[in-house]
DNA sequence: CGCCGTATTGACTGTAGTCAAGTGAGGTGG
DNA sequence: CCACCTCACTTGACTACAGTCAATACGGCG
């Protein structure tokens, strides 16, 4: 069932049939959440690693005075915190944006999986490091880019990430976010998000309607956003890690 | 020699004498760098993990048009990219801010160390996860905090981190950064950094002079910054990982 | 049809950026 | 030892990007 994860990991390494079977089997303890529900709250000590099977979620942090920052987005195929067990308590929360179906993977299960499947271990490492690289890019995005560039960059990133899990159709992809959520992710106000979206639309760079994003000319949007996809580390050259069966 | 690292790791777990000796011995291949030199450049494929022994460095990313964002600071005791080996090429650069003394730890050396010393493995995991947590907090800082809060927050973080490696004396610590560097880290202009520093000074929250930062009332500065140190995960409760010798 | 959350618009404010001109302090060389 | 040079810091006047407040429009769903 976790085909999105498998599809993503195959961008890094070729998995054997046995690897894939093993990955299929981790999707136990499936749970469903409504939209706008917390999966994990700041202060919790999570019991297992979560894998998003369907829907979108986000990592976020709320300041005492109510300001909220979305720190990252989770989409199908994404893992939440492969290694949290080391830390005592969550320093942020994870909440859903749409209805979400999750698999909860117990710690031992994951350890067992990686012990038996070295290529999966490598691939999960890659997954983790890319997540961190995305986090760094968000710092650049918030620190240096203008509102227009910022939204454009976010759209490029989400589009490319969705493509790696097979959720892009032609030049369009799902984008189930409200303008408020875009604002919380980009450090802008909803009003300014709204106006900036209009600017992107009238420049013909995006079509955004009915929770669906269309990018008629990805290269053009990338140019506006100063988007360089290398931080997503998608060049499939893990030949030296390939399965030989 | 890498006493700062040892001191830091002991905030998470109690290390045995053997653990400490092993850590002492990884500081081979010592290299010295001038200030404002690149240690690793975007696109490089680094050969070893770097440990900062003395001086300050930073992770940064430069956009095509020249804008630069400092993504994180490295101070004595910090490790650069414990697990880069999985990825093909660096997606950012690491450069010095002051003269820096580094130890280069070959991959095998690190694997060997962790294989023999499970507590060190745990402690390095903690180190890695805290680094990522810091990265997330920077997203919150850039996305939600005002200029004043942002600088105040950065100072709180640097102060607390320096304290964990023993570099705080009383209520003051080294701060070898120019206003330009502060600007690149906080996504502000140098002019605005300058004015905001004056505001912090005249509020009596900081004394900043001669590359030295004094914080007369840390609680007050924390309140202004909305700084909550929990993301640094310093509560020493790793008793269950304690060495028994 | 009517309700509620989301999106849109306008007018105004304010924080932060820009440009450009000084001032100051530390280091070097004559 | 001092002049000078450079880099960092400081200041002022002006601009502009983004935030605030508040009213209104839209759209999907019961």
Task: Give the arrangement of secondary structure elements.
Two copies of one chain form a homodimer.
Chain A: H1 3-9, H2 17-24, E1 30-33, E2 38-40, E3 48-54, E4 57-62, E5 68-74, E6 79-80, E7 93-96, E8 100-106, H3 107-116, H4 118-144, H5 147-164, E9 172-174, H6 179-186, H7 190-202, E10 207-209, E11 212-214, H8 218-225
Antiparallel strand pairs in A: 1-8, 2-7, 3-6, 3-8, 4-5, 4-7, 9-11, 10-11
Helix pairs in contact in A: 3-4, 5-7, 5-8, 6-7
The first copy, chain A, binds a DNA duplex (30 and 30 nucleotides) through α7.
Keywords (chains A, B): DNA-binding, Transcription, Transcription regulation
Domain HTH crp-type (chains A, B): 145-219
Domain Cyclic nucleotide-binding (chains A, B): 5-78
Describe the protein in words:
Two copies of one chain form a homodimer. Chain A is an alpha+beta fold and 245 residues long. Helices cover 40% and strands 20% of the residues of chain A. Chain A folds into two domains: 3-128, Jelly Rolls; 146-225, Arc Repressor Mutant, subunit A (Orthogonal Bundle), CATH 1.10.10. Chain A contains eight helices and eleven strands. In chain A, the strands form three sheets. A four-stranded antiparallel sheet of chain A has the order 1-8-3-6. A four-stranded antiparallel sheet of chain A has the order 2-7-4-5. In chain A, a hairpin with a 5-residue loop joins strand 4 and strand 5 (68-74). The first copy, chain A, is globular, with a radius of gyration of 18 Å. The first copy, chain A, starts with a helix and ends in a 20-residue tail after the last helix. The interface between A and B is large, with 45 and 45 residues. The first copy, chain A, binds a DNA duplex (30 and 30 nucleotides) through residues 146-147, 178-180, 188-192, 194-198.
């Amino acid at each position: 069932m976790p085909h999105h994860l498998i599809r993503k990991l195959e961008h890094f390494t070729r998995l054997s049939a046995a690897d894939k079977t093993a990955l299929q089997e981790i999707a136990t303890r499936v749970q469903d959440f409504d939209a706008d529900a917390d999966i994990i709250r700041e202060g919790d000590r999570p019991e297992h690693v979560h894998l998003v099977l369907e829907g979108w979620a986000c990592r976020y942090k709320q300041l005492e005075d109510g300001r909220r920052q979305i720190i990252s987005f989770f989409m199908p195929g994404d893992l939440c915190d492969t290694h949290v067990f080391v830390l005592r308590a969550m320093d942020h929360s994870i909440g859903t944006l749409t209805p979400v179906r999750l698999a909860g993977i117990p710690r031992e299960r994951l350890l067992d999986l990686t012990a038996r499947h070295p290529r999966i271990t490598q691939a999960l490492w890659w997954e983790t490091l890319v997540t961190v690289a995305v986090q760094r890019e968000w710092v650049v995005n918030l620190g240096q880019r203008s509102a227009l560039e910022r939204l454009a960059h976010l759209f490029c990133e989400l589009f490319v990430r969705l493509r790696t899990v097979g959720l892009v159709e032609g030049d369009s992809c799902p984008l189930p976010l409200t303008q408020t959520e875009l604002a919380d992710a980009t450090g802008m106000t909803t009003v300014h998000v709204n106006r900036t979206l209009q600017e992107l639309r009238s420049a013909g760079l995006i079509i955004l309607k009915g929770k669906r994003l269309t990018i008629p000319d990805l290269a053009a949007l990338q140019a506006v956003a100063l988007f360089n996809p290398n931080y997503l580390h998608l060049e499939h050259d893990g030949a030296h890690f390939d399965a030989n069966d």
